[in-house]
Design brief:
Elements: H1 11-23, H2 28-41, H3 48-60, H4 65-77
Helix pairs in contact: 1-2, 1-3, 2-3, 2-4
């Protein structure tokens, strides 16, 4: 039996973000975005390309998932993750 991959409703937007993460260095904002997307796609039955690329970003930045979450918790405690963005909209789903 072949399992079908689902397409996430935020796939196209997230794909652009992942492409940016692959091309850029880690900053507080990029770390927060990586952690957010790792959580979003953690158990999602599809978007394997995004999941694989998120792992590539972790490796490129020489981070483990545990270290990523540790760093982003510190960033969020200081409320610095999205200070560059002029929006109150949260995009966790």
């Amino acid at each position: 039996m072949k399992s079908e991959e689902q397409q996430h409703p935020q796939y196209h937007k997230d794909r652009r973000i992942v492409n940016t993460l692959l091309a850029e260095k880690h900053t507080p904002y990029n770390l927060a975005e990586l952690a957010r997307l790792k959580i979003r796609y953690q158990h999602f039955p599809g978007a394997k390309d995004i999941q694989e690329d998120l792992e590539k970003v972790l490796a490129k930045w020489e981070l483990t998932e545990e270290k990523l979450y540790e760093k982003t918790r510190q960033i969020h405690r200081k409320r610095q993750a999205y200070k560059q963005k002029d929006t109150d909209k949260e995009d966790w789903l």
